[in-house]
Amino acid sequence: MTKRSYSRKFVIGSSVISALAMLWLVLFCLGVFNPVWGEVQQLQRAREIINRHYMEPIDEAALTEKLLITMVEFLEDEWATYLTQAEYEEIQRRNENRFQGIGTRSVRDEYTNEWIVSETMPGSPAEEAGLRSGDTIVTIEGISTGLQTDQERAEIISSNYGGSVNLEVRDLAGEMRTVVVEVRAFDVNPVAFEMLEDNIGYVRIYNFRRPSGRETIAAIETLQEEGAEGIVFDVRNNPGGGVNEVTQVLDRLLPEGEIFVYADYAGQETEIIYSDTEYLDMPIVVLINENSASAAEYFAAVLQEFNQKMECDTITIVGVQTTGKGRSQQTHSLPRGGAIRLSTARYLTPRRRDLQEGEREERGVRPDVKEADEDFQLEKAIQILIGKLILS
Amino acid sequence: MEHNKRYSTTSLIVCVAIGVLAGFVLSLFWFREVHGIGTPAWEEAKQLQEVREIISYSYVGKVDETALTELALAATVAALEDPWSFYLNQEQYEAHLNSIGNRQQGIGIYLERDEETNEVTVLEVMPGSPAEEAGLQPRDSIVMLEGQPTAPLETDEVRELIGANYGGTVTLEVRNPAGEMRTVVVEVRAFDVNPVAFKMLEDNVGYIRIANFDLRSGEETIEAIETLQEEGAAGLVFDVRNNPGGRVNELLMILDHLLPKGELFVFADYTGREKIHYSGPKYLDIPIVVLVNEHAFSAAEFFAAILQETDRATIVGMPTTGKGRSQILIPLTGGGAINLSTSRYLTPGRIDLHEVGGISPDVEVEQEDGEADVQLKRAIQELARR
Questions:
Q1: What is the pLDDT of residues A79-116, one digit of tens each?
Q2: Domains of chain A (ranges plus CATH)?
Q3: Which of A291, A353, B181, B371 is the most buried (most CB within 10 A)?
Q4: Alpha helices for B83-175 (secondary structure H)
């Protein structure tokens, strides 16, 4: 076997080429060849100048935070925000329908300034501990609530995270009791349902965050087993949520066809999500209002379009015109903490409607049956369903 | 025959490995040196880069990257919350350079629309301007500009049309108040503006108006003082009303001329470390009154403050607002500049004008718009008292 051998030129040449390749590779990995690099360099030089010459030391992190807020505002994206690390964590939990604390909503007493529980969240430690709406919390950990600011109260509770807080509570009858409430994370079911009279199922979807898809389908199945002949889906005040969740529900309700269309800013379609053949064969009413946004109004829009396309009359949208939001957002965490949330895609209905296009009054979903009276919307929905059930 | 040395595969691999290593080390070294990897500024830059990449790749809309950078630069400086620090884009920077150099661009006239004739009329001609050289006078009406009637144009449009001929000339058809028409050719160029004006008033009172402390204000003020002294001035009124301030060295040149040996000006950093400027032994032994008002800032306030502190002058007018921060103008490599507060400054009595909120005149005199100059009148009286 002959040994291979190389000339000096070849050896030196390959060494130099590999050195340059490595140089390029490292710089590439550091992002030097990215067009954004030059822009960032410009900013960094300004930062260096300020650091070196400004008359006082600078709080770098605060400066960056202010800068990020301004940059996000520049995008003219009404759904974009900068989030601090705490806000980001809060949002992450919220996206999972997870909360931290004791799980009460409360108001101040007009005269004593004490905290009155207005609602205990289902599944929360407060509910477990037996707190009820109307209870007055007189002290938290021995400190009178009438003398506390909102922030002080939040701090006392969060500082006991993982443990519990002692509350002195006065109920509506005026009787005092001591309640020990755990402070922890807890899950709240975004879906509630019940069977109404005349075999009408009622499904309330508070938001389309996880696990609303699974829970809604479970609710539909339970109601079907109990003999439901029509269902009211209530998405009033539903701020939206994830695409996965809403498409999961739409897939269950509708036969084969398009149920979600992603598009870029130029209107070019980038991805389409389809429904399978399985569907729910019963009359449906969807309740909407002006606070139904994003996934919630999209949900109503797709069902409305399906009904129009099929020229059938199984689905009716009742209530008030919705918000009109047609951008989906992503939240990106940042290396130094915090996050930015910005619109990363447009979405269109199967009939290629952008819910956010046009003037305010053209946006969103318009109900088939308008009912502005909040207290009468559900009743109207039930009437419509009963009418359909009799006809069929 | 030349003997070519041959190398084995092993040596090739070793050499390539050394090359790779060298490239790696070289790039990191370059990075460290040039971009300060690992420094706090670098950490912040990484954070920004991440955001820019996210916006650039993920955002659903179109983004003007250059505009975003410009905005970010402005926001960075604004975040300091220092009223005297600001970002200038290239265009603003050039205008600012002209302004602090006491240079103007154009032909050097102020225009207004005559209410009666509705014609574009010269309100004022700047001294030393091409318009002055070409013989333009206040109250002249500009009827035609480059053959185009000015009647349908706004004064701003006229200004823009003139500016469009920068580096050349404009031809104007002008009517004077007597109704005589003439053609005037005026150069459109940069010209120096004298920030100092002076005259001898009655009773040998020398009056010097310093419009700003920018370029040439020092030498021009000293020249004005010397000329007035030669003409027999018995006292001087320095008018720094509406003077926005300017450069420290121009200010010091004047103060050095006015004040005896001693401290003149104290720079102080945030830790309290001082850098002091001193006056030479020569000084001006003549009564002085300084006119100030609420629109006198920075060097102008300081000028009044030190003369008050050393009891070299009586201060007449209205209290100033108080600026005690000095700035430098730093150009950025990619265009534009940052005007940045770099230091506090104190009077020799260690007073921070920013902290005390400006200076209080010895004699407070309010000036109503449109009425005779009562402040100057009072200044002359005070000068007689000194």
A1: 899 998 888 998 888 888 888 899 998 898 888 889 99
A2: 1-52 (no CATH), 98-187 (2.30.42.10), 191-391 (3.90.226.10)
A3: A353
A4: 90-100, 130-133, 155-163
B323 touches chain A (CB under 8 A): no
Check B60 against A77: CB less than 8 A apart: yes
* B179 three-class SS: coil
CA distances from A385 to A75, A227, A233, A238 (A): 45, 15, 12, 22
Assess A61–B contact: CB distance below 8 Å, yes or no.
Answer: yes
CA distance B282 to B256: 8
Look up the ipTM and state it.
0.72
* A343 touches B at CB < 8 Å: yes
- Minimal CA–CA distance to A126: which of A164, A162, A88, A159? A164
Minimum CA–CA partner of B15 in chain A: A15
Which residues, including other chains, have CB under 8 Å from residue B3's CB and lie 6 or more apart?
A: none
Measured between alpha carbons, how far is residue A265 from residues A300, A347, B36, B59, B384 in Å?
Answer: 23, 10, 37, 9, 76
Q: Cβ of B80 and A8 within 8 Å?
A: no
Given an 8 Å threshold on Cβ–Cβ distance, is B76 in contact with A46? yes
Q: Supply the pTM of this predicted model.
A: 0.70
Residue to test with chain A: of B2, B34, B35, B60, most A Cβ within 10 A: B60
Distances (CA, A) of B8 to A3, A10, A14, B13: 8, 11, 14, 9
